[in-house]
Amino acid sequence: xxxxxxxxxxxxxxxxxxxxxxxxxxxxxxxxxxxxxxxxxxxxxxxxxxxxxxxxxxxxxxxxxxxxxxxxxxxxxxxxxxxxxxxxxxxxxxxxxxxxxx
Length: 102
Fold this sequence. Notes:
It holds the Pfam family DUF2849. Residues 66-102 are annotated as: Disordered. It is a single chain. By secondary structure, the protein is an alpha+beta fold. It has one domain. 22% of the residues lie in helices and 28% in strands. The protein has a 5-stranded antiparallel sheet. Strand 1 and strand 2 (20-23) form a beta hairpin. The N and C termini lie far apart (40 Å). The relative contact order is 0.21.
């Protein structure tokens, strides 16, 4: 008996800056988790991951992260992924400062 597929988002780090990014349905990299494509089919998730890894000139370390549907878009389901949505924890500018605007 196979297990039920858990929805995913494709996440990686931007090659130049190292920032966490997420793949959108229209093939953009966004720093905002809620803009990511929520993938609910395992085969489609694997294809999107292959597509992301082929873009090695933009990103590094692409992987599928568990997510769930939320009122504003996908939401992380694991502490590590929740932490990654906030950016580096050693300063309060950039992504952390912008969190109030989401």
